């Protein structure tokens, strides 16, 4: 009797596993439909650096751009650090009044980012996003 119950359970598990695997197969003609959100996303504006990036004495990342950008001191910003061995993301706050030469009549021609955590020393590809509008990537060695 126990043997029949065990065999019935094994058969049921095999049937359920087969049903789940066949139900998960996708046809080649199926297209991916992204989930709907309330806010439209039009993609990031790729920014062009006009000066080499620097990290100032206060540990802030200073970037100058060709394009005018618009942000406030509450705009969410992230610093992606990618090395040969790891990748991490660090939150940052824009500092709007650090460099007066960045401010223009049409926004800013640069950004100063204050990381919420210290940047570890090493050679990185920086991948920075400001809000859901701007993106810039560059290589930099943090000392």
Please describe what this structure looks like:
- By secondary structure, the chain is an alpha+beta fold.
- 15% of the residues lie in helices and 39% in strands.
- The protein has one helix spanning 2-23, and strands at residues 45-46, 54-55, 61-69, 77-82, 87-94, 103-104, 107-115, 122-130, 134-142.
- The model has no long low-confidence stretch (mean pLDDT 83).
Helix and strand arrangement:
Elements: H1 2-23, E1 45-46, E2 54-55, E3 61-69, E4 77-82, E5 87-94, E6 103-104, E7 107-115, E8 122-130, E9 134-142
Low-confidence stretches: none
How much strand? 35-45%
* Class inferred from helices and paired strands: alpha+beta
The CA-CA distance between the termini, in Å, is 72 Å
Largest sheet, in brief, is: 9 strands, mixed
Mean pLDDT: 83
Task: Name a few traits of the molecule.
elongated; single chain; 143 residues
Could you give a quick summary of the protein structure above?
The chain is α+β, with helices and mostly antiparallel strands. Helices cover 15% and strands 39% of the residues.
């Amino acid at each position: 009797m126990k043997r029949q119950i065990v065999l019935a359970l094994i058969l049921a598990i095999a049937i359920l596993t087969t049903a789940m695997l066949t139900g998960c197969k996708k046809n080649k003609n199926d297209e991916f439909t992204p989930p709907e959100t309330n806010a439209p996303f039009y993609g990031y504006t790729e920014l062009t650096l006009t000066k080499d990036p620097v990290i100032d004495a206060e540990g802030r990342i200073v970037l100058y751009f060709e394009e005018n950008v618009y942000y406030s001191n509450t705009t969410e910003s992230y610093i992606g650090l990618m090395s040969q061995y790891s990748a991490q993301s660090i939150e940052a706050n824009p500092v709007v009044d650090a460099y007066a030469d960045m401010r223009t009549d049409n926004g800013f021609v640069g950004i100063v980012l204050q990381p919420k955590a210290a940047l570890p020393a090493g050679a990185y590809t920086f991948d920075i996003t400001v809000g859901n509008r701007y993106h810039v990537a560059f290589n930099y060695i943090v000392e």
